[in-house]
Amino acid sequence: MTAPRLETLVLAGTAESRAVIDALRAETSVSLTASLAGATPDPAPFPVPTRMGGFGGADGLAAYARENGVGLLIDATHPFARQISRNVREAARILGIPCLRLERPPWTPQAGDAWRSFDSWQDMADAIPAGARVFLAGGTRSIEIFTRRDDITLLARALNVEGRAGPANATFINAMPQTEAEERRTFSDNGITLLCCKNSGGPASFAKIAAARELAIPVWMLRRHHPEGDLPVMGGGAEKQVANYQIHETVESVVLAARRLAGEVAAGKR
After folding, report:
1. pTM exceeds 0.90 for this model
2. Strand 245-248 vs strand 240-242: parallel, antiparallel, or unpaired?
3. How far apart, in Å, do the first and last CA atoms of the chain sit?
4. Which end of the chain is more exposed for a tag (fewer CB within 10 A), N or C?
5. Of 252, 257, 208, nearest to 104 (Cα)?
6. Do 11 and 76 share a structural domain?
7. What's the chain's Rg over C-alpha atoms?
8. Half-sphere exposure of 187 toward its Cβ, with a 13 Å CA cutoff?
9. What confidence category does residue 233 fall into, taking pLDDT thresholds of 50, 70 and 90?
10. Domain containing 253 — which CATH number?
């Protein structure tokens, strides 16, 4: 008799989500489906069945999971995808199933860094000194706020901004993976004096931070706020659990937790 498999839905869209899927897809006790919201054009395919598009909030996600026998949700979305994370946690609560949240640690400054943290893009944009040459890597939603400043020069990089119209002091470039050397060249060629971005954490988009550090360019970051006020972002490789909701800092920790849960299902303990 074949042991039951733990139907697992991975809310994806990050490098870490791919690593989780790669680590779990060979597990005979786990059946994986990936989910992408569809914000990134032409994403690289996953080696597992993939669902594209939103669910219609927490209730829609819960309905999908119920209809497809999902017994585990893995939220490996971007640290700033707050609404998605709230929906995933609420869907897990509705269904009474476990949810593993992969929360990569935020970046931290080292000696000599000129970093500032802000609670909103508006606060950040308001604080920029006149005449600054700003590189903005905050996503499309931040652009409108910064383009209201007609006394700065703005170079904004985000998804799907090719051909975007804007004021004469603003230039838009489509987001593409960049090496540290490419970021340094961009900053130097454009005389950038300030980098504004999210504190996303992780290695995937750290090249711009490293380049700014090398060129002694100040870095202003949008502070990360966890979608659940009672569950702060943690450090030190810790794991936080509240009922069936767990926050993990690393891919390895999430994979181990998923394997434990799958083992319980296979043993008839869940």
Report:
1. no
2. antiparallel
3. 18
4. N
5. 252
6. yes
7. 20
8. 27
9. very low
10. 3.40.50.20
